[in-house]
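The aim of this short unit is practical: by the end, you should be able to scan a pair of folded records and say something sensible about each. We start with the first protein, listed as its amino acid sequence and then its structure tokens.
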Amino acid sequence: MIDETTLRAGLDLTLEHSDFEGLGRLQRGKVRDSYVDEGAGRRIIVVSDRISAFDVVLGTIPFKGQVLNGMAAHWFAASREISDNHLISVPDAQVSVVEECAPFPVEMVVRGYLTGSSPTSLWTYYARGEREYCGHHLPEGMTQHQRLDAPLITPTTKAEKGAHDEPVSAAQIVERGLCSAEELSRLSEMCLAMFALGTRLAADRGLILVDTKYELGRTRDGRLVFIDEIHTPDSSRYWYAESYEEAMKAGSDPRPLDKDYLRRTLIARGYSGRGAAPPLDDELRLETARRYIEIYEQVTGRAFEPDLEPPAERIPRRLGLKT
């Protein structure tokens, strides 16, 4: 695990946003700044250290961008056996060069367990008596955190920045013209195969892949590929496998390894996404960073080695920009 001195140094090394000239048309998302070069058919993704919860950008976390970019590259490489993805190269710890794709306007959420605490989570719906979720029927008598008989695909719309994603059924996706029935069938097959791979590889590392979300797109030559990220702390929930059975017997929560720590802390402090977000104090930022780094090391089996050069200085140089 990263030493405390290095971790605290990261407080002054976060990248809140980028604005690099000469890379292409800038598209700024919640976490990623993308530079689109239409002529070259590529996109340069700069992964900032911004963090969001409740669909709100809250601040920055030390080394978060390096963790996310490194984990995405790890999973893109590990999953080549089952599916193509958009990654071309990783010229910097916080930068990925990818194929430009036409993204599908839905996020494919795959859930393996009856859990969650957000207003749109599977458990929230079930706990208030609803038994239909995104076109799936859930049986009576289930308990919180129970494993589902089979993973469920529960898509959401891709909301604009500041708006909230909306759970939708497969039928609604087709009815709204977000993609065709044939495309949705193929995307579902790809996501279930990816989730199965993630579940197996996570188990090898003593983890349970609880749920995740995937984004997919179509390349210029017509291939369907995974884009954005795969199985990172921002897209996925993990539990320690050794804690699961005991937690279920005790009626408690399995030991988590995900960014829900930040969400849970803010909820305990009285913020759940409404009104002005409270500032993130340094200790909360540091503890969140520890969680991100822990999951990187636990999932990849490698020690996290941060790049300590200021990102605003090193990234332009590594991309060949004049400074």
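Turning to the second protein, read its sequence before its tokens, just as you did above.
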Amino acid sequence: MKYVRRNAAGTRRLLTTLRGAVSILSGVLIGVLLLACGGGGTGSQSTKLSGSIVGDGSSTVFPITEAVAEEFRKVESKVDVVVGISGTGGGFKKFCNGETDFNDASRPITEDEKKACADKSIQYTEFQIGFDGVAIVTNKKNDFVSCITTAELKEIWDAGSNVKKWSDVRSDWPDKSINLYGPGADNGTFDYFTEVINGKQKQQRADYSASAYPNVLVQGIEGDQNALGYFGFAYYYENKDKLNLVAVDAGKGAGCVLPSHDTILGNTYSPLSRPLFVYVRNDALQQPEVAAFLRYYLTEGRLLVSEVGYVEAPDDVYQKDLAKIPQQ
């Protein structure tokens, strides 16, 4: 199964139109064959479920869920899966208010979010759906930053940082301004990065270009020769011809390490490797269409994790998660 994400709205509309035309033609051909054979059944691939599933949350997890939702619709065409991007924190606000069935998360739920859910009697189940490595990136024309230490990242990004130029970090780097790009404060990537790099969640300098949408950050970094930014690995993977990927040295003897399948899964891309989650309301999970969607996510859908640029979890993780889904 090969899945290719689509950035351009025009391309998406074109493919939707083509898919619709193919579906119509396929339907006509199937109808003709059924009539010719004297059959009136709907076949083994007929849609049995219907309804709407609403999710929101992490822009990091979004490419996976978007891909899984599109493939699931091919199996259950009468189930409408709608996925938004409010960031992990923004998504949990909706989730704990009962507005969504599930929340994509690039970090575990916090104690404050647990309390917010409990206050609204929202019970939930956590599913781990893969791993990510937070990518450190620069402009394609940057020819002097191939590796950066976690200490230098802290020096650059921490609250109260005095770093204004590249030469403030290393004397042999250019005496030019360093322009920073990163996720907004509602993003799980922001929470994770600030905690493992700066030492405290949400502790970060405010003078940077922030966006909840990684593709906006990609465009900014692509057009700025002095840019340095971070976001989920899938967005670098999708735009690797436009950006430079920077290796990270955590100062623990491993040296400069680039994020990859092996370094993320083996946690040698440390400390920027992290698990990814989907949280589902327990009452929603009792609905057949939601249970079927999660079951698909953790079976056929898991293959899409690597297709969009992330790393599959070990098989025992998926098996443990599948056991959490009610049998219909």
